[in-house]
Amino acid sequence: MEKLKAEVREKGLKYHIITYGCQMNMHESEKIAGILESIGYMPADSKEDADFILFNTCCVRENAEQKTFGNVGRIKKLKQANKELLVSVCGCMMQQESAAKKLMETFPFVDIVFGTHNLYELPEMILACKSGTGRIYSAPETEELHDDVPQKRAEGPLASVNIMYGCNNFCSYCIVPYVRGRERSRSAEDVISEVSGLVSAGYREVMLLGQNVNSYDGGINFARLLGRICEETDIPRIRFMTSHPKDLSDELIEVVAAYPQICRHIHLPVQSGSSRILQEMNRKYTRETYISLVKKIRRKIPGIAVTTDIIVGFPGETEADFEDTLSLVGELRFDSAFTFVYSPRSGTRAAEMPDQVEEAVQTERIMKLVALQNKITEERNREYEGKTVEVLVEGTSTRNPGHVCGRTSTSKMVNFEGSGALIGSFVNVKITQGKKTTLFGTLAEEET
Ligand code: 5AD
Ligand code: SF4
């Protein structure tokens, strides 16, 4: 390993990571970057400038897979121009043996392929590859946690902390339990000490991550974990995602209500407004229980924003089922929603179901749903006009360099005129305009 480190340093080797998919994948890319920097690699400005290019993949929906194949294919030219270039593909998609095989056959120039469970072994894989072992494919199915790896976090006041991995739910459309394995939780002590370390390092907001974050069980349940983080650390803001409605307990609602540092936002995927489809999806709740859960959350935690995920065109979804989804969206008026066209994933139960919905029908339905939700999102954002909200400033605005942006506790992006010196502080902003994706405002007073 020392020889590899010396070579990396001497040659000044650089890496570039391209990440697809969810927050979990983004966070895993921070770990990959941390591992690479621990053996001397430095970040490259672009893939053209890199000696090691990694694709961290997602397989939750089909279009993510197509994008990955297209982009990996385009690396061939760079590889031809630079024989020393190492190319690696990792992450969820590579955890599926069939997809990994297909990728390796299609792209003989890919050097290292690994899955989601063994990223900590990356230095050994690079070493073996460079010592002439040839191409490497390693995607074991271990359930062990290897969390003690260096992390290179994104700049700014926000940090992610993974508290549990995997999923036991087997929603009938979803590939995640097959690639991420069963639920494993980190110990509460580990999580709390990581959050304390982040506070000391100057971070102001942590996002606790898990595929099913509220079924955390690290000796204590998720509600207790949140309570302990609030009591035992000085972190000013905590978020968490993604919550499953079936595990959203009264105890959790009470803890969120009790601690102002827990953000007033819950991401609670509903997936469908039809109880029949929910049953086919194996979601373990009905339309009615979901609606009363959201109403209870809003009653107990006034002002909380609720966002969701919705799938349209699940096998067997009739016009009446889809109308149920529209009416649920109209009744609950989510702050925003991620909407997806159902995409069959091989190996899942839904992929084998009869009555797959025609593409034209799926397209028509998603357009209707998006139009309805966009209107609601904008209306909800307009409700902020004239109000003063607390914002944690995250960075400068990409569109307007004289402006900065950050989020409210309710997870609304706010853009306002201000200097980069505000990054990392909490400020009050008076909202002048609420648009579809962003609230615009003016600084009301400095540090709150
Ligand atoms: N097709 C479409 N959407 C899916 N999701 C998960 N699996 C599929 C699939 N096969 C969506 C769900 C989930 C989000 C992360 O992705 O809405 O909540
Ligand atoms: Fe997939 Fe369902 Fe698990 Fe979420 S809860 S990761 S949708 S199986």
In brief:
This protein is of the alpha/beta class and 448 residues long.
Write the layout of secondary structure elements.
Elements (H helix, E strand, L loop, with lengths): L1 H10 L2 E6 L3 H16 L3 E2 L8 E6 L4 H12 L2 H6 L4 E6 L5 H10 L5 E3 L7 H12 L2 E3 L19 E5 L1 E2 L10 H5 L3 E2 L2 H13 L4 E5 L12 H11 L4 E5 L8 H9 L6 E3 L7 H6 L6 H14 L4 E8 L6 H14 L3 E6 L17 H24 L5 E9 L6 E5 L5 E5 L8 E9 L3 E8 L3
Parallel strand pairs: 1-2, 1-3, 3-4, 4-5, 5-6, 7-10, 10-11, 12-13, 13-14, 17-19
Antiparallel strand pairs: 8-9, 15-16, 15-18, 16-17, 18-19
Helix pairs in contact: 8-9, 9-10, 13-14
The structure holds 5'-deoxyadenosine (5AD) and iron/sulfur cluster.
What is the share of helical residues?
Answer: 25-40%
Shape: globular
CATH fold naming of the domain at 2-138: Rossmann fold
Bound molecules: 5'-deoxyadenosine, iron/sulfur cluster
Strand content: 15-25%
Going by CATH, the architecture of the domain at 2-138 would be 3-Layer(aba) Sandwich
Structural class by sheet pairing and helices: alpha/beta
- Mean pLDDT score: 95
Low-confidence stretches: none
What value does the Rg take, in angstroms?
23 Å
- The N- to C-terminal Cα distance equals 49 Å
The CATH superfamily of the domain at 2-138 bears the name Methylthiotransferase, N-terminal domain
Strand order within the widest beta sheet: 2-1-3-4-5-6
In the CATH scheme, the class of the domain at 2-138 would be Alpha Beta
Task: Work out the number of β strands.
Answer: 19
Main β-sheet: number of strands, strand sense, barrel status? 6 strands, parallel
Number of helical elements? 14
